[in-house]
Design goal:
Blueprint lengths: L4 E8 L3 H12 L5 E5 L15 E2 L6 H15 L16 E5 L2 H13 L5 E3 L1 H7 L10 E5 L3 E2 L2 H14 L3 E4 L3 E6 L4 E5 L2 E10 L5 H7 L8 E11 L11 E4 L4 E6 L2 E5 L4 E3 L10 H9 L10 E12 L6 E4 L6 E5 L5 H18 L3
Parallel strand pairs: 1-2, 1-11, 2-8, 4-13, 11-19
Antiparallel strand pairs: 3-7, 4-6, 5-6, 9-10, 10-11, 12-15, 12-16, 12-17, 13-14, 14-15, 18-19
The chain binds flavin-adenine dinucleotide (FAD).
């Protein structure tokens, strides 16, 4: 494509932020929507490389409102998104070090009307013998949490959006965007676009893409986190186990294939795109997780990868118009729960864009 393409809404980024926004824009009947993804495939960054945990009760109440309603869509997807649930109901157990912390988790679970039950340490270890000897006061089990089919979710948004006329371009990197009287003139490696509304849904790059369009970075910072695929010599896998997340010790583990997926919940500030595995990555497990849960020393790292979680200063997603640059809309800073919350984030973004299209 070298000629200029005129559209009404141009979405930059084909991760959960951009794909869900395009999906809900198309559901609202907004025509003339294009989505640009710089990579040759969708899901090469956070949206395709995350831990796939559906966790409803998260750190912050505002974000929890997004994850709870996002999880409802994962359990009962809109018919054009998926004919079947997009999350397993294997559940989660959130562990804490003190009884006060457990009481707070339960109080917040009640506020959000989430099914839950308190587990003694004995019951925690009956689910997870591998975690025996770990220090905790117990856990709260959430039976409606589980593991998301992230491939089906991302491609469900994109396929339905395309079906309703959204144009998607792969290998199309936005390089500059100049505000004009009518909106924006956007230069990409594949050609020029003109758009009335520019949606910045570029994950770790969102701050720099927004700046290339004349806005200020609203304080978005990316943090690298590692994930480890672990195998155990005995190969005793239980795929239906609820995932376990120790909130104070900060690590999580869930069944994956014949082994486990584990993260030490590390967070190192990183430049966009810098998702190389750190040279000392395996030490993160040995030095941070194994001392807490000694039986994990029996597991072997089969594969590791890293990816970036991007946060706003409030740690809440930014879903709204830029205050300075007319026509520029942010769907950014999805943080660590963007897969779970994506349907709500996309719906809110589409409502706000549609109500004020310039
Ligand atoms: C290790 C890890 C574990 C996680 N675990 C979970 C979990 O268990 N559960 C959960 O709900 N969430 C989880 N998350 C969070 C979730 O993955 C993210 O919140 C979400 O994927 C962010 O989506 P996004 O669309 O904002 O970003 P991205 O997925 O990064 O998508 C942005 C896209 O924009 C494209 N782009 C950037 N610049 C340009 C440009 N100039 N032109 C065109 N395209 C561009 C990029 O190539 C990219 O594909 C995890 C994240 C990480 C890193």
């Amino acid at each position: 494509m070298t000629a200029r393409l005129s559209v009404q809404v141009l979405v930059v980024g084909g991760g959960f932020a951009g794909a869900a926004t395009a999906f809900f824009l198309s559901r609202k009947g907004i025509g003339g929507v294009a989505l640009l993804e710089q990579e040759p495939f969708f899901g090469l960054h956070a949206s395709g490389r995350n831990a796939a945990l559906c966790r409803q009760l998260v750190e912050d109440d505002e974000v929890t409102a997004l994850t709870v309603s996002g999880a409802e869509v994962l359990h009962s997807p809109l018919p054009d998104l998926s004919p079947r649930p997009l999350v397993s109901k294997s559940g989660s157990i959130l562990l804490a070090s003190t009884e006060e912390a457990l009481a707070e988790i339960q109080a917040r679970a009640r506020t959000f009307s989430l099914s839950h039950e308190l587990l003694s340490t004995r019951r925690v270890f009956s689910y997870w013998p591998l975690l025996q000897d770990m220090s905790c006061a117990g856990a709260v089990r959430f039976p409606d949490d589980g593991v998301i089919d992230i491939h089906a979710l991302l491609h469900g948004y994109l396929a339905a959006a395309r079906e309703r006329g959204v144009m998607t371009f792969l290998g199309c990197k936005v390089e500059r965007a100049e505000p004009t009287e009518q909106g924006f003139l956007v230069e990409s490696n594949l050609g020029t676009f003109s758009a009335r509304c520019l949606v910045i849904a570029a994950g770790a790059w969102a701050g720099s893409v927004g700046m290339a369009a004349g806005a200020q970075n609203p304080g978005l910072v990316a943090y690298r986190r590692h994930l480890f695929l672990m195998t155990q010599p005995a190969g005793d896998s239980r795929p239906d186990l609820p995932y376990a997340w120790h909130l104070d010790a900060s690590f999580y583990i869930r069944p994956e294939s014949a082994g486990y997926l584990l993260s030490p919940c590390d967070e190192t500030p990183a430049e966009p795109g810098d998702d190389a595995v750190a040279s000392n990555a395996a030490d993160l497990v040995a030095s941070r997780v194994v001392p807490l849960a000694p039986r994990l020393a029996d597991l072997r790292v089969a594969r590791s990868w890293a990816c970036l979680r991007t946060f706003s200063p409030s740690k809440r997603p930014i879903i709204g118009w830029d205050e300075e640059v007319p026509g520029l809309f942010w769907v950014a800073g999805l943080g660590g729960h963007g897969a779970t919350a994506s349907a709500t984030i996309g719906r809110l973004a589409a409502e706000r864009i549609a109500s004020q299209l310039p």
